[in-house]
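#dry-run=false #mode=assembly
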Amino acid sequence: MTAKEMAAALCERGVRPTPQRLAVYEFLCMHPIHPSADTVYEAVVEHNPHFSRTTVYNSLRALMQAGLVQELSMDADEKHYDANTSLHGHFHCRHCGSITDFPLEPTMVQSLTPTGYTALGQGIYLSGLCPACQP
Amino acid sequence: MTAKEMAAALCERGVRPTPQRLAVYEFLCMHPIHPSADTVYEAVVEHNPHFSRTTVYNSLRALMQAGLVQELSMDADEKHYDANTSLHGHFHCRHCGSITDFPLEPTMVQSLTPTGYTALGQGIYLSGLCPACQP
DNA sequence: TTTTTAGTTTGTAATGATTACAAATATATA
DNA sequence: TATATATTTGTAATCATTACAAACTAAAAA
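#status=ok
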């Protein structure tokens, strides 16, 4: 996705494409590593030394409310952010620490849902060893 | 599970069954509501006004390390605790706020795991409407 | 039983992520 | 250009959790 397309994506969702919001969104799109707010801040402040931590939180909230970014609660210590808003799960490697997406079909979520319940959202987290870290 | 059985469970796992740890474990077993540390504290301090918040955290950590209690990261704002250590998922009702367990088969987790990965743990969270809150 | 030792609890202080807030700045509209 | 609105910024506050050291308890040794 080009910078122009990202700006268009924000406009479409009613989010004014300020340079700061674009920087946050661009970083999330270009680095699908599911960073924490602080990791995003460290990255964007490199290019703009005046960037405020609060602006990162504000931007993440705006992007989330617009449905452009997803918030992950993998560990309860800090939140992680993901610009991939399609249905997918997250695998956390206990060895190298990486967090990778994996595909998830709507039918799989449906088959997990107990009868009588209506699932509107999901968080599917697996942890273990990624292919590069197999013993 | 009786109080005696709970004490025995701690001993088996090498956790000294102090009154404080038993109070925490007993509350978790008798109230499968997936409480936060603070909810546990509020409950146990009722019976022992000298109970310290730190002791709740210490006890929860000891019970967790012994494999008697599970830590949940449903929302990233606070951790929740569960004395049910068998394989299961969690459903969070957006209307009434309840968190309920639902069954999960090892084969279901296996079928989610992408090839090349080894899953050692999982957190399967669904959110939506529970049976009592259907529209 | 007394002494010693290790483990546990407690209260307070520190930490760290996140949010609240108000002033400063930028953008859009009239 | 003037005016209203939205956004950014820095600082201070909040809140869950952890660190720490003193007080306490219980188990082991003498």
